[in-house]
Amino acid sequence: MSCPICEKRKPARFCPAKGEKICAVCCGTEREVTIDCPSDCAHLISAHRYEDEHRRSLPADTPLLDEKIPQDIVYTHQQPMAALAFSIAKFCAVQPAATDTDVLAAIRALAETYKTLSSGIIYEKPPDAPLPRELYAAMTAFISEIKKQQAERAASASLKDSQIFYLLVFLYRMGLLRTNGRPRSRRFIEFLRGQFPQAPELKREESRIIVP
Question: For the chain, does the N or the C end have fewer beta carbons within 10 angstroms?
Fold first, then answer.
């Protein structure tokens, strides 16, 4: 009997996503690439633990990396930052197919939109892919609602477009550092959900692990 993926090596690890045993090599190379791993898979958890101990650095050509974020921007705007993070986590809770790649694409596109807005130019280019585009629209609507609520409170200073831009850049960089770069990774999404453990809207889906 051979591994159902490579059809060469002997299957040694039970894969909850496949519902059968696969070889260790395919588990390592196809994990979060062609295999949509459940977050509670023991092999995935072990791999993520290793990644935490060996943090990756961002390449020099990373988008928005040259933007200098004001040191106090996150500290002075903790509430809107948390609200943005929650809106992303909430979206992903009802869209379980969403991956870190989708989230990062939406955040980057929205950051670039607010970069132009803060300079007085109106230019919007939502992502082409359906899921990132939906998240982009959801975040846009959420920010508009925040601005509306702030405008209704005379004593509350309204968020400027430039401030929103820096908050989005901060979230984008955080996501790049939290994810592992694999196409189906949800490390950043899981991190965001973990920041709001008591929120019923972010209740984790039932385990997809199939007992062998």
Answer: N
Is residue 153 left, alpha or beta, with left meaning phi > 0 and alpha meaning psi from -120 to 50? beta
CA dihedral 191, 196, 197, 202 (to 10 degrees): -90
CA gap 27, 178 in Å, rounded: 21
CB 167 within 8 A of CB 73: yes
Kindly report, residue by residue over 53-96, the tens digit of the pLDDT: 888 788 777 888 888 888 888 888 888 899 999 999 999 999 98
Tracing tokens 């189906």 back to the chain, one arrives at: 184
**Rounded distance between C-alpha atoms, residue 61 and residue 182, angstroms:** 18
> Among candidates 101, 147, 145, 146, which has minimal Cα distance to 127?
101
Residue 107 near residue 128, CB atoms below 8 Å: no
pTM of this structure = 0.87
